[in-house]
Design a protein that fits this description.
alpha+beta, four-stranded antiparallel β-sheet, 2 helices
Length: 113
């Protein structure tokens, strides 16, 4: 099966090259970090869902590598994806600090602890 050389982002509509520094199977947009549910396992392109996947969190491997966590807007599955060298650093940091910037409780409660 021949691989496409680019894809259109489902969120921001940017034409995205499939080649990406730091990853072999790019499936998210470096501009907005959204993805499409195309894989069951990384790179297999076997999913029938095809819905958009929202970047919702960052996790970090033991070796320090950052991974994006995407949630499918169609079926709800969560997938982790390696970040690429050309991913927006500003958006990556915004996602990483979201739990601190928008905690699930009022910050003034911390003062009373």
């Amino acid at each position: 099966m021949k691989r496409a050389i680019s894809f259109r982002c489902v969120h921001c509509r940017l034409d995205v090259p499939t080649d990406a520094p730091g990853t072999a199977n790019r499936n998210h947009c470096p501009n907005c970090l959204w993805s499409r549910h195309v894989d069951d396992d990384p790179g297999d392109r076997a999913s029938d869902c095809g819905a958009s996947m929202e970047p919702i969190a960052i996790t970090v491997r033991k070796d320090g590598e950052w991974l994006l966590i995407h949630r499918c807007n169609g079926c709800g599955v969560l997938h982790s994806n390696r970040i690429a060298g050309d991913d927006s650093p500003l958006l990556l940091v915004r996602i990483a600090v979201r739990p601190i910037a928008q905690p699930p409780f009022p910050l003034d409660r911390l003062a009373s602890l």
